[in-house]
Design goal:
This protein has about 150 residues and is of the alpha/beta class. It contains 4 helices and 7 strands. The chain binds adenosine-5'-triphosphate (ATP) and magnesium ion (MG).
Length: about 150
């Protein structure tokens, strides 16, 4: 991941632009990387995931998992897409055996990642998305967390 230690802020003015941002970011990701997407309903997390997945070489339709917590895709490398919106208790992720994804050789993209912060490995990229108005989103890329807690 070549994003520096600094926080980067990007404004997009369309869903398409957010997807393109994801596509561009994808080339900085390597096996084992984790991307946490944080932001309210409709902020654009899934939109960014679609771009990231496409940039990682996933062909076909990408959407949030509905009845389960995770979708798996195969691009240039495995892509695991979690949507934890419906997760009631972070411990479920361990109980269901999902932790192995976080330490695997794919790229893991996690919507509503704030629900499982204590389970996350030491390093990950955090992306905050904020709705400014109907078509405008503020997207902040934060550096890897250096230490647990
Ligand atoms: N600049 C923008 N970037 C991303 N999405 C945008 C933008 N402008 C408008 N939109 C619209 O906002 C919505 C974002 O939906 P999306 O499903 O990506 O949000 P989400 O954060 O995943 O929400 P949820 O928490 O419900 O899963 C889409 O309908 C999209 O078309
Ligand atoms: Mg979503």
């Amino acid at each position: 991941m070549s994003i520096s230690k600094n926080k980067k802020t990007i404004i997009t003015t369309s869903a398409r632009a957010t997807q393109r941002l994801g596509e561009r970011l994808a080339c900085t990701l390597a096996p084992g990387d984790i991307v946490c997407l944080v932001g309210e309903l409709g902020a654009g997390k899934t939109c960014l995931v679609k771009g990231l997945a496409r940039g990682l070489g996933v062909k076909g339709y990408v959407n949030s998992p509905t009845f389960k917590l995770i979708n798996e895709y195969q691009g240039k490398l495995p892509v695991f897409h979690f949507d934890l919106y419906r997760l009631e208790d972070g411990r479920q992720v361990s109980e269901l055996g999902y932790e192995e994804y976080l330490f695997g050789r794919g790229v893991t993209l996690i919507e509503w990642a704030e629900k499982i912060i204590p389970l996350l490995p030491r390093q990950y990229l955090k992306i905050n998305l904020k709705r400014i108005d109907e078509h405008t989103r503020k997207i902040e890329l934060r550096d890897w967390r250096a230490k647990k807690k």
